[in-house]
Amino acid sequence: MVSPATGKVYGLQRVCRVLGVARSTVYARRKAASSAKPEPAKRGPKPTVSDEALLEAIRTDLAASPLHGEGHRKVWARLKFGHGMRVARKRVLRVMRDNHLLSPRRRPQGAPNPHDGTITTQAPNRMWGTDAAKVFTAEDGYVWIFVAVEHWNAECMGVHVCKTGDRMAALEPVAQASAAQFGSVQGDSARGLALRMDHGSQYTSDHFQNQIKAWGIAPSFAFLQEPETNGVAERFIRALKEQAVYPRTFATLEELRQAVAEFVQQYNRRWRIEKKRIPRAPRSACGPRIGTSGMTMLFWKLLRETEMGAAGEHPIKGYLGQAHQTMKEWGLHHGVPSPKTHHRMIDLLYLKERKTGLRDGPAMLCPKNRARYSRWQFRQERGQPQFLSCP
Q1: How many C-beta neighbours within 10 Å does residue 318 have?
Q2: Any idea what the Cα angle at residue 374 is, between residues 370 and 375, rounded to 5°?
Q3: In whole angstroms, how far apart are CA 375 and each of 20, 350, 357, 387?
Q4: Rounded distance, CA 345 to CA 324, Å?
Q5: Beta strands across the sheet bearing 217-221
Q6: What pLDDT, in 10s, does the model give residues 151-205?
Q7: Taking the CB of residue 351, how many other CB atoms lie within 10 A of it?
Q8: What are phi and psi of 136, to 5 degrees?
Q9: pLDDT per position as a tens digit, 200-230
Q10: Domains in the chain with CATH codes
């Protein structure tokens, strides 16, 4: 700073006194500015092609291409194999990103969905899931696998392996499940059931939608680009591929069909053990399955039989004993019924007494259910209406 009167430079001491700044601060900043180090350069060997030359090559390649919206991978491949320019793919990505040359793409809007809910049900035959997968065979080419899975305990209800994956083939596993579960594929045979599916062309077709509505099934579509909402069927497809498809090579469709059938049998018997659900009874034991738990279904089957106990044995005791023994053979909770099953027992005893006129049936019941039975018997003697919780 120069004095306008004398034309000389003001001394540092006078300037610092007027501005209120310590001289040590000025000296320290001067020293730091004089000894400042330059910014460190990038480590490693220097590239043979600079970023400016690489950017010019990228612009030239994009201008010469007849296609639009190409990403960095195709540009990198043409530069490397077409022009002999040896550059890293991630470097091409960085240069194109910094210069806004990447292909535009649609980004998901809003906050991501954590999918922390549940799509399983608390009872069977409320919702099934269906999905499809393609598998390559050596002689028959690509073939289709359609499945139907129960959301209650992830049981595979039906499977169909075919060459043509059209709307009729997509209906086949649902028809198998309906016939096995409800004993029919007639109209309204599956009333009250929902079917979870994705937006594939087979499932959105009018033929498929009209057919499941004729069976009484309500369609339930998964969300777009969110396969987690059809996670039960998707998880079964994953297990099928990992356990039966990927480990081997299939020559024909029949070979794949046999492998899938064997896997489904092993899956329903062994894979679902961690689901902590009561398995359904074997089809050979109970015929067409109904929409209740395995224990209650067995009770209803035995109730329909004419003779439930051995000769000279109490019919109710023989009925419960046979139920427990069958449950032990199946390995279900070691034959010990749950408290909810006890309530089913008392209801079935009501019906049994209506048929046989027995009065000593509730001797084996717990005190709570014995009191319920006594209240029911009191209403019966007074001619009051009965209220049963049986389906």
Answers
A1: 17
A2: 120
A3: 99, 11, 17, 11
A4: 12
A5: 156-162, 141-150, 127-137, 193-197, 217-221
A6: 999 999 999 999 999 999 999 999 999 999 998 888 899 999 999 999 999 999 9
A7: 13
A8: -95, 135
A9: 999 999 999 999 999 999 999 999 889 999 9
A10: 51-98 (no CATH), 127-275 (3.30.420.10), 283-381 (no CATH)
Question: DSSP code of 360?
Answer: -
> Rounded to an integer, what distance in angstroms lies between the CA atom of residue 320 and that of residue 308?
9
Q: Scanning the structure block, which residue is given the tokens 């969905």?
A: 113
For 231-285, how does the pLDDT look when each residue is reduced to its tens digit (9 = 90+)?
A: 999 999 999 999 999 999 999 999 999 999 999 999 998 887 656 454 444 443 3
Residue 212 identity (one-letter amino acid): I
- In DSSP terms, 137 is beta-bridged to 141
Measured CA to CA, the distance from residue 141 to residue 71 in angstroms comes to 31
**DSSP per residue over 194-248, as a string?**
EEEE---HHHHSHHHHHHHHHTTEEEEEPPTT-GGGGHHHHHHHHHHIIIIITTS
Position 159 scores a pLDDT of 97
Cβ-contact 264, 152 below 8 angstroms: no
Structure tokens at 16: 């610092």
Token pair for 47: 């590239």
Q: What residue spans of the chain are helical by DSSP H?
A: 12-19, 23-34, 51-64, 72-77, 89-98, 167-182, 201-204, 206-214, 231-240, 253-270, 283-286, 294-304, 315-330, 339-356, 367-381
Those residues with Cβ within 8 angstroms of residue 363's Cβ, 6 or more apart along the chain or in another chain: none
CA atoms within a 13 Å half-sphere pointing along the CA-CB vector of 79: 25
Backbone angles phi, psi at 104, to 5 degrees: -70, 140
Angle, vertex CA 245, rays to CA 241 and CA 251, nearest 5: 155
What is the C-alpha to C-alpha distance for residues 72 and 68, in angstroms, rounded to an integer?
Answer: 12
Distance (Å, whole) CA 245 – CA 262: 12
In the structure encoding, which two tokens stand for residue 15, read together? 């300037």
Tell me the pairing of strands 141-150 and 127-137: antiparallel
Please, what is the average pLDDT of the chain?
78
145 close to 160: Cβ distance less than 8 angstroms: yes
Distance CA(233)–CA(130), nearest Å, equals 6
